[in-house]
Each structure stands twice: as C-alpha cells, then as structure tokens.
Sequence to fold (117 residues):
Amino acid sequence: MSHEAKRRKAFQDYFEGNLDELGLAKKLGFPTKTKVEQADAIQKIRDMTTPQKTPRPFPGVGIFIDNTTVTSGGKTQIPIQIRKMWKLKDGDKIHWYAKNGDIIIVPSTPWRKGRLR
Fold:
C-alpha cells in the first residue's frame, strides 16, 4: 500500500470513528512520545479536520496548558509544565508582548538577548 493510500485509510478510519485524534496523529507520523508532543499532535489533527468557515485571525495560537490568577500585587505564577519546558529557574526573565489583542509570553534566552546569533 502506498504512503498516500495509508494516509487516506487513516483519515477514513478517523472519520468512521475507528481512530481517535491521537491514533490518527500516530498513523500520520506526528511525534507523540511526550505529553507536549501528544497535545501538539492532537491540536494539529483538530486544525486539519475542523472545517474553517472564516480564516483564523492569527493561526497557530498554540496549545492551552494551564491558567493562573493575577494577585492584588500584580503577580502571577508560571505553570510547572511551562517552567519545565523552558527550563526556567528563580531569577530568570520573561518577555511580555501584545499581538492582535493577545498577550504573548516568551522566555529570555541567550539567543533573544543577542548573545548567540
């Protein structure tokens, strides 16, 4: 069976209910070893299989991980999953950006500081 035929069969199985989103992602060869890769693969499958009547204002927003609360002093916590993924420790800086009405948070890495270009 050709690669394209396997791909069509995987989508057909998914639409018939024989595969879930993660199963389809595995059949299509998306990386699914870690929880983050699995969440990313599921989001990609949803993006591929959900009909879009109007284009998204900013595609690739990302995957929801967790939410936090802002305290009266203006502080908020960074979820443990994100701290581990970015390898953040006490004293590390993060950057806050505004884009299309959203807030984007980015870790301050040596590359972003201009040290490793």
